[in-house]
Each structure stands twice: as structure tokens, then as C-alpha cells.
Specification:
The chain starts with a helix and ends with a helix. It is mainly alpha-helical and 193 residues long. The relative contact order is 0.12. It is elongated and about 55 Å long. The protein has eight helices and no strands.
Length: 193
């Protein structure tokens, strides 16, 4: 996540310093690309890493396969790199193609999280869980979120509100829900002791 945060900071600085016509003419798509790099990119890497290390302990399941985390990280980094390259080159057609490729990689990385989410889902139905379905619902929602975000990007030419819907879904619904779940699960574990 640190490598991609640094790359994102450099890309963002480049965009601010260049102030070229490409960015100004395509501001909505450029902002969407940057927001998805943050939310589905390095921020999601941090959250998934926490999940890979903590969830097996919390739900008392077998540790997840380390190769799955490598696949997730590889897809995530490839997606962010593709989107960054599309932004730096500055050609609108190439930017849209590279962003589509990048979002496909980012969304595919979320789909790879379905296997560990299913393991937790099956385990929690066997045992009584104090948190209920909210403890594992986020993991089951991630693959669907990836597909929805990719659909909003592809549908941007067909609907004026497609990108806005994707932004609001991530920034106004998913991230606050995710942060609340992390806080609740953190304090719930502390209070059970």
C-alpha cells in the first residue's frame, strides 16, 4: 500500500502542477479515476490486509491462503499502475482505455475476496455470533461492489449520473459503513474480554 500511496501522491502532484487542457476538459472522469485509485486501490489494500490478518483469529477459521493475498495485491497494483499511466500520458482515448483496464483489475481483485468471505460466512452460520451478519456482510458485498463500480464506469457514456452514482456508492455509503463496522468490531472484541 505504501508504494501505491507514493505513486498516487506523485500522480496527483503531476496533475496539479501540469494543469493541462486534458485534465480540465475531462475533469469528471479524471476525478473519478483518482477517487477509485484511492478507495479501491491503496485504501482497500490496507483494509484487506487487516482482514487477512485479523478475521481468521476473530472467527476461528483456518488462515487464508497466502497466495490469495498475493493475487489480490498483484491485481490491485496492476490496476492502479494502469490508471496512473493513463493519467500521465494525457491522451483521452488512451486514458479511458487504461482506466477501464485499471478498474477491471481493481474490481477483479475485489472478486478474488469472495473465497475467504464465503469461508467466514459458512463458519458464522454454524456458531452463534454476537455481532450478527454485519461482522461478515462487508466481505460478501465487496465482489458486488467491484462489479457495480466497473458498470458505472462503462455506463458513463449512456447516463449522465453513472459516475456520480459510483462515487456516492463508494464515498457516501460503503466507506462510512466499512469504518463503522471496523470500529464496532474493534470495541466489541475489547468489551468481550
Amino acid at each position: 500500500a505504501l508504494v501505491m500511496q507514493t505513486a498516487f501522491a506523485l500522480t496527483n502532484t503531476w496533475i496539479i502542477m501540469m494543469q493541462n487542457d486534458f485534465v480540465l476538459a475531462n475533469l469528471e472522469e479524471v476525478l473519478f479515476s483518482l477517487q477509485m485509485q484511492v478507495t479501491l486501490g491503496w485504501l482497500m489494500c490496507i483494509i484487506v490486509a487487516m482482514g487477512f490478518s485479523l478475521l481468521p483469529l476473530i472467527f476461528d477459521v483456518e488462515p487464508f491462503d497466502p497466495s490469495l493475498m498475493r493475487i489480490y495485491a498483484g491485481l490491485n497494483m496492476a490496476g492502479q499502475a494502469s490508471m496512473t499511466l493513463g493519467l500521465i500520458i494525457g491522451d483521452i482515448e488512451l486514458f479511458r482505455t487504461m482506466t477501464t483496464i485499471g478498474l477491471t483489475f481493481l474490481c477483479a481483485s475485489l472478486v478474488t475476496l469472495l473465497a475467504p468471505a464465503r469461508i467466514i460466512f459458512k463458519q458464522t452460520h454454524k456458531d452463534e455470533d454476537a455481532l450478527g451478519p454485519f461482522a461478515y456482510a462487508i466481505g460478501m458485498f465487496l465482489p458486488a461492489l467491484g462489479i457495480i463500480i466497473l458498470t458505472t464506469w462503462i455506463g458513463r457514456d449512456y447516463s449522465n449520473y453513472s459516475l456520480e452514482f459510483g462515487e456516492k456508492l463508494i464515498l457516501n455509503l460503503f466507506l462510512p459503513l466499512l469504518m463503522m463496522t471496523i470500529l464496532l468490531s474493534h470495541f466489541n472484541r475489547r468489551l468481550e474480554c
